[in-house]
Amino acid sequence: MGSRLRVAALCGAALALAGGTVVALRAWARLRSPVALPARSAAAAAAADQGKGHGKQILVLGLDGAGKTSILYSLATNHVKRSMAPTEGFNAICINTEESQMEFLEIGGSESLRSYWKMYLPKVLLLVYVVDSADHARLPVAKQLLHQLIQNNSTLPVVVLANKQDLEGAYCITDIHDALALSDIGDKRKMFLIGTHVAEDGSEISSSMKDAKELIGQLVLETQ
């Protein structure tokens, strides 16, 4: 049996792929408006994790340029905020809702920082993995790194964000699913694939971004 994969298209409709059949998923419970707290320094983020077994953080990973930081800031404010420079180190953001507190820890995706990814993986609630849907050339690298990350953790929930769906030439959701070989990851974990995009600065986040935020919040509640 392939992995239990949930797929949400750019329009925000939630779909599931199971045995080649597309079926509607139940809508996720709405979360309240978040409050973004100041990002902590790399040292503070690292210190917060030291000595912990199973933490409460959501680890955000992906290749450099995938759009991780822009997604986090947009989720925190409900409005688009683009980040042009890649993250050089760590970026920690906390989003509070009435139902939960979501602590996101982003680690930069350049080659020099990828060695840190596995160090933090055992300490988190779930993994958010961001890919650039229009960067076809590097999807094989994104696939390899994702599979290496989770091969020894069969139950860690994974949310894959197929970002930049608004760009010309971007792979659609089913193409990203195939390119990352998500069916090969296993059927014991909760795995989700959502198409996202970050529009113009200052605009309200798209419905797909809202779907992603609500899904992550629901997973945090279920995992804690």
Walk me through the structure:
The protein is of the alpha/beta class. The chain is built from six helices and ten strands; from the N terminus they run ββββαβαββαβαβαβα. The protein has a ten-stranded mixed beta sheet, sandwiched between helices. Strand 1 (4-8) and strand 2 form a beta hairpin. The radius of gyration is 16 Å and the shape is globular.
Number of continuous helical runs = 6
Average pLDDT confidence is 76
Shape: globular
Order of helices and strands: EEEEHEHEEHEHEHEH
Ends apart, CA distance between termini: 27 Å
Query: Within the largest sheet, what's the order of strands?
Result: 3-2-1-10-9-8-5-7-6-4
**Low-confidence parts lasting 5 or more residues at pLDDT below 50?**
6-54
Q: How much of the sequence is in beta strands? A: 25-35%
Biggest pleated-sheet summary: 10 strands, mixed
Structural class: alpha/beta
Q: Got a strand count?
A: 10
